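Hey Z.,

So I finally got round to the D-serine thing we talked about over coffee. Here's the setup:
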Amino acid sequence: MDYKNLENQDKDVFLAISREKERQINEIELIASENYVSLAVLESMGSVLTNKYSEGYPKHRYYGGNQIVDIVEEIAIERAKKIFNAEHVNVQPLSGSPANAAVYFAFLKPGDKVMGLKLDHGGHLSHGHPVNFSGMLYDFVQYEVDSKTGKIDMKEVRKIALKEKPKMIVAGFSAYSREIEWQKFKEIADEIGAYTFADIAHTAGLIAAKKMDNPVPYFDVVSSTTHKTLRGPRGAMIMCKEKYAKQIDRAVFPGMQGGPHDHITAAKAVAFGEILRPEFAEYGDQIIKNAQKMAEEFKKREYKVISDGTDNHLMVVDMTSKDIDGKTVEVALEKCGISVSRSTIPNDPNPPIKPSGVRFGTPAVTTRGMKETEIVKIVEWIDKAIGNRDNNKVLNQIQKEVEEFCQNFPIPSV
Ligand code: DSN
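And the result:
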């Protein structure tokens, strides 16, 4: 996109966007939740559909003139159903946390007991953290990863579930690198008559590519963002069994939201169309290969990888194994043009603002066409930067090398 009109009309914003475009071209993106959309997705987001109000659902709107918007929303729904084998899909949630809020609103009453993974063990704020609406409105009990293996121990999950008898069990995580035993979660929930809710925001693309197990056939309700491994626009979706369709739709609108963002719905439809192409399975496969190579390279250099490896697109590395904290690593790598996100580790003695770990992810670099050879090079730079974190000369040299390297791997959204 050339942004000609923006350039003529508003130099300040044009300049800021241009600089961000350059940053994305010249830097390596390892934030596990980020990705680059295609130009077709980007164009849909910038379309005239942003001008429309469409409260309601296809053929049941509260505003006129929605004939075309209905077509767009129906395409998005049908494609999502096909990808995930879902009985019912709502594509209107604005983002991950609002989608999760709608799920709770649909199934629970304030004060109801819910079970979710603790944030510093890989969970998400909206899975019951006390500073989040979820932890304030609902009575969350939290499960943890095993302190030795760094993995979820389903026996422990069952023990807590039988003792606490939550009305809903939440599975699915933001910083957990292993396959999830969806069927076991379902069996445990069935023992106590709890609802099953999977948040697959991080792994949805890998599930869509059939590289990880799909919870949709087992679980009552599943939410996902659409902008991470799904490589769509910033937004979310909810999938559920047909018997819950009405309560989910009512929870999203009028329960939580007003007018859907129709331009984003169109971009979701386009991204889902891309996922249905055979190339997407190859993309999912390479994301995992790249992440596994990265974990292996870190371990070779004696970094402690939580759970000792990865089955998906991400890993959390405990930086105390190198006598450093995650924030310091994030800052040093930023100087080299490598973006990462600091992360808590299980039972982190340090606060989230300066935690002990760093989360690394491979969806974005894989979109640029990077493979295992490039991953080795990236880990070499990371290790060198960490070892020379106070040496600006070395960090500047790495930054130059990174910038040159990036020119060989164009990003699609420019
Ligand atoms: N902010 C997202 C992430 O980075 O995982 C989750 O909301």
